[in-house]
Design a protein that fits this description.
about 45% helix, elongated, about 725 residues, 4 domains, nine-stranded mixed beta sheet
């Protein structure tokens, strides 16, 4: 990942520059350049000025008055972000022509035509003060060229290939431009997104280097000669085969570092109203002489248009709409104050070294540190890169781009995390492959997610427990050899296990032909009682299908039957065993009773027996009370029920009759009314009742006959006693 980013950084596609620009823009918004009065002012021809003085363009006499007022106030330089390229339509000669063309004209207006031309008046005003005219540079070839007052000198080879080149210009009229002290271009082009991040100080036209308005204003303000340009080979910074580029510009005592193409990285201030003076206040005499001198004496004054329809709007990192004249003014401020943003030549090298070094550090350290400490290391690297870049910007004016080193840290850490995740998934898969034949899929997933759960301990939960056992398994074992017996058990227990797992059971263990399963652990199952009842019924339905499908199969021992005991209640479930070996299992009286119920299915000759608590939680299922019995190893008696069928069975007349007659029989039996009990037994044997209770009826017929011969004692409570587990 670090290598891919390094290759991308080496080729410097446009996206790299765009990312850098966005970062540096955010820095400027977070910390604009603190405003400091650098003796730079802007005279703004704003909306109020237009309202007071009339529609633009004004007569050049107004511009001449403005120029003389600023000159009289002691301005060090007056730079116009206005190009006087067309003759004044209001000049006397032109006005006389318009008057003569009027049908109502009286005379030839020769006196008016003889008055001084307004462009000449402005030119004279320009000559009386330290003025700088503006001109546009265009890519369309023409013969217009700006007036050169002082020129540009180069230390080294002229860096023409590095500068923006133009083929034409739109300049001030000669009568105006030749009288001014200097001329500078006002053309400013933004980056791909239109944002002005660097102000051009130099451009070229026909192989001639020309200065910007801000640079020329600084020269005129100091009364300096030519602008000095230091090129890369004139400063010893040119490498073999490189194009000669600009390193710095100097005018008078002021010097500014530049980009290779002669631009000044801009560090903009927030909006400062004190920098701007509306033009109407000067032209209408709103400012006293003392106030004029306070505002303009010794200052560089930029004259621009901020009125609606006239304004030259540009986008900067901190303002979406900014006056172009403000960019010129702020460029002059930065050069005067000596506060620069620079992106040194070694910046790219530092960024690439950081990218590689941090990528290697994270790549080599993070795997051994683990996810948390590796993440903290990556976070430290990320914060360090960003904080270092911000510190360099904030305290040294250095533009060091943190994005790619930061991306290196993040991408390498993500790659390591992805590899670790892949390895962990492989480890989980190994756990699945090793244990999913022994444990339920839910339990395997839980252990795979958190191997720490393989610790001793448990919790008490309300659970439903199932015991199932194959009837006559000893005879089956005698019939088959060991391999045939294992094959039979696999063919039997596999579909039974499918039924249990489909009903969200956790398989605790297989004990030969017996199965122990439970519900509501390790995952919560709010319907665990119903799921257990359905599982027991579906196990018997599956067994009936297996018997039918394997009829005549020598590997299947005829008609196989199973007994199922179900019980619900509190159990302690968790990792049981020793520190050397443990098993996820459960213990408790609920489990013991479920085991006894499974054994009692042989006694009562019913497929499924339920405990009293579970039967009470299954009111919708077809359950019938069979007895109250005290099982071996347990003092408390338990009311037991047979599960005869699913909920839809309960609405059938046969089941309704069976339940009513069974209740009547039990009531008569426990009330020692043997005749009524025998009558109920006879009714239960009728064809209109549900089959499957023949073994239970035989038990009660025997008990009643015995009690007729030997009546029970007076304290007899109707509770039976199981004689074996």
């Amino acid at each position: 990942m670090a290598l891919l980013l390094l290759i991308l950084h080496l080729f410097q596609p446009p996206i790299v520059g765009q990312i850098s620009n966005l970062v540096f823009d955010s820095y400027q918004r977070a910390w604009p350049r603190p405003y400091e009065d650098a003796a730079v002012r802007i005279v703004d021809i704003d909306d109020e000025t237009i309202r007071r003085l009339g529609q633009w363009p004004w007569p050049r006499t107004d511009m001449a008055r403005l120029t003389d007022s600023l000159t009289g106030a002691g301005a060090a330089a007056i730079a116009f972000d206005v190009v006087f390229s067309e003759p004044d339509r209001t000049s006397p000669a032109r006005a006389a022509e318009i008057l003569r063309a009027n049908p109502e004209a009286r005379g030839d207006y020769s006196e008016i035509a003889a008055m001084t031309d307004h462009d000449e008046l402005l030119g004279q005003a320009m000559g009386r003060g330290p003025t700088v005219t503006g001109f546009f540079l265009t890519n369309e070839a023409n013969a217009v060229r700006p007036t050169e007052q002082a020129g540009v000198a180069v230390s080294g080879t002229p860096p023409l290939d590095a500068l923006p080149a133009y083929n034409g210009a739109i300049a001030a009229l000669p009568v105006i431009g030749t009288r001014a002290s200097g001329a500078g271009f006002v053309s400013i082009q933004g980056d791909r997104d239109g944002i002005i991040r660097a102000a051009p100080l130099l451009s070229s036209i026909d192989g001639r280097i020309v200065p910007s308005l801000s640079l020329e204003a600084l020269r005129v303000a100091q009364g300096a000669g030519a602008v000095m340009v230091r090129s890369s080979d004139g400063s010893g910074e040119l490498g073999a085969g490189e194009i000669t580029s600009v390193v710095a510009v100097k005018t008078g005592e002021l010097e500014a570092p530049t980009t290779h193409s002669g631009e000044l990285w801009m560090h903009y201030t927030a909006d400062r109203p004190e920098r701007i003076v509306p033009a109407w206040r000067i032209l209408e005499g709103d400012l006293s002489e003392a106030e004029m001198r306070r505002l303009f004496e010794g200052h560089i004054v930029f004259v621009g248009t901020g009125a609606q329809g006239l304004r030259d709007l540009v986008s900067t990192p901190i303002r979406e709409k900014e006056l172009g004249v403000v960019v010129h003014a702020q460029a002059a401020e930065q050069i005067i104050l000596g506060e620069f943003l620079t992106r040194p030549d070694w910046a790219l090298g530092v960024e690439r070294v950081l990218l590689v070094v941090l990528g290697l550090v994270i790549a080599l350290s993070a795997p051994g540190l683990g996810a948390l400490r590796g993440g903290l290391l990556a976070l430290l690297g990320l914060v360090g890169v960003i904080a270092g870049s911000w510190f360099a910007f904030r305290n040294a004016g250095l533009l060091l781009e943190p994005t790619f080193p930061a991306l290196g840290v993040v991408s390498v850490y993500i790659a390591i995390t992805a590899v670790s995740f892949y390895r962990e998934e492989r480890a989980r898969s190994h756990i699945h492959n090793a244990f999913d034949r022994y444990l339920s899929p839910e339990l395997v997933d839980r252990i795979a997610r958190d191997p720490g759960q393989l610790e001793l301990g448990g919790e008490v939960r309300q659970m439903t427990v199932l015991f199932s056992d194959v009837r006559g398994f000893s005879r089956i074992s005698e019939r088959f050899g060991p391999q045939e017996l294992i094959g039979f058990l696999i063919n039997l227990l596999t579909p039974m296990t499918d039924v249990l797992l489909a009903r969200k059971a956790t398989i605790d263990k297989y004990i030969g032909d017996a199965v122990l399963a439970f519900w509501n652990a390790p995952l919560d199952d709010p319907d665990h009682e119903q799921n257990a009842a359905w599982a027991a019924l579906e196990m018997h339905e599956t067994l009936r299908r297996l018997n039918a499908d394997n009829a005549g199969n020598p590997a299947w021992p005829g008609q196989v039957s199973i007994g199922v005991g179900l019980n619900t209640g509190p159990c302690c479930v968790g990792n049981m065993g020793s520190r050397q070996r443990l098993s996820y299992s459960l213990i408790g009286d609920t489990v013991n009773l479920a085991s006894r119920l499974e054994s009692l299915t042989k006694v009562y000759a019913v497929p499924i027996l339920l405990g009293e608590d579970l039967a009470a939680r299954l009111p919708a299922f077809a359950t019938v009370e069979l007895d109250v019995i005290r099982v071996v190893g347990r003092d408390a008696p338990e009311r037991i029920f047979a599960l005869l069928g699913p909920p839809e069975m309960t609405s059938g007349p046969a089941f309704i009759a069976t339940r009513e007659r069974m209740s009547a029989m039990l009531a008569a039996y426990r009330g020692r009314d043997w005749d009524a009990a025998e009558a109920a037994l006879e009714a239960l044997r009728g064809p209109e009742t549900t089959p499957g209770l023949e073994g239970v009826l035989a038990i009660y017929a025997t008990r009643i006959a015995d009690f007729r011969r030997t009546p029970p004692p007076d304290d007899w409570d109707g509770i039976s006693q199981a004689l074996e587990k």
